[in-house]
């Protein structure tokens, strides 16, 4: 097992990464203060892992909330079953919520924990690659609004994160690839050597080689832990973690939540960021091609799809991006690239060049 630490003073917490960690009854209890627990999961994950997780908490007053599965349920109303159960059971401020699932369950459970009685403890047990490398770490919680992704939420850090890499064995290939998008993101932000490692190990990752996956998860979590420790509330450099996300969120919202996976949308968004960076002369087409090749090796898309006949026009992109969280004082900030493995945040881009990128990727 590898243990990393997210260093946030008195709110610091460990990330445990390893195989079969759900068999270890000793890891989580030190991070639970009361005797009350609510495990939140969904109807896909419950039959796979809920019994195993319940055995970890046989000594606690334990409730289970099983939500429907899907990004489309990550809404304000979608968290009410969690709040209702907490109220019905009169759970007090020492209750701990446990998120068992991917990023959707993690974001929703974390947000419910942030608002119930103005904040109670929660723990993340991420079961997708995307959640193990990104969403379970860093304390961003929340839900979507029909007009914008993750627009309602709170910063609320978990007490610990337990990433049992064995749970990835039941994940389907498309979801594994979606997680690889966020792994590639870390390489593009600040590590050409990790980029090269990914190039040499992508087939091992696609084939779920445990050592390759463990290294990719460890590298990603360490990177994220460093960024979060330095800028917890995204007042500066944490925004780099949004590489590909401004375009990606517009794609997810524009196509309808759930029609393009978050990781797929981020992959396309990174291709769009590379395109815009080339148009400014900040990277050359050789670097762009290396990026596209790596994304494709992870079996991820680099073009905006048309799903159920839904297309995204340039106008739609502009509208959705204007509502993005990276708009500050009316100015859009984007994460763009200036070398392989080097990204930066800027509002100083040419809007005509952005228009050209949008035209190159729009489908209507
Ligand atoms: P997800 O939570 O929808 O999970 C993907 C699918 O895999 C679901 O159908 C789920 O039921 C299923 N699943 C989960 N674990 C499984 C397992 N072990 N075996 C079989 N099936 C399993 O999607 P995701 O990609 O994990 O997360 C995407 C969400 O995370 C988005 O809403 C995104 O906005 C959010 N996100 C948040 C942050 C953050 O910092 N909070 C960061 C990145 C992404
Ligand atoms: N996924 C972006 C962040 O956590 O900041």
> For the largest beta sheet, what order do the strands appear in spatially?
4-3-5-6
Q: Hetero groups bound?
A: nicotinamide-adenine-dinucleotide, glycine
Residues in helix, %: 40-55%
Order of helices and strands: EEEHEHEHEHEEEHHHHHHHEEEEH
Distance between the termini: 49 Å
The major beta sheet can be summarized as: 4 strands, parallel
What's the arrangement of secondary structure elements?
Blueprint: E1 2-6, E2 13-18, E3 36-42, H1 46-56, E4 61-67, H2 80-88, E5 96-101, H3 103-115, E6 121-126, H4 129-135, E7 140-145, E8 148-155, E9 161-164, H5 173-190, H6 192-206, H7 210-230, H8 245-255, H9 262-279, H10 285-297, H11 314-322, E10 327-328, E11 331-332, E12 334-339, E13 342-346, H12 351-361
Parallel strand pairs: 2-9, 3-4, 3-5, 5-6
Antiparallel strand pairs: 1-2, 7-8, 10-11, 12-13
Helix pairs in contact: 4-5, 4-7, 5-6, 5-9, 6-7, 8-9, 8-11, 9-10, 9-12
The structure holds nicotinamide-adenine-dinucleotide and glycine.
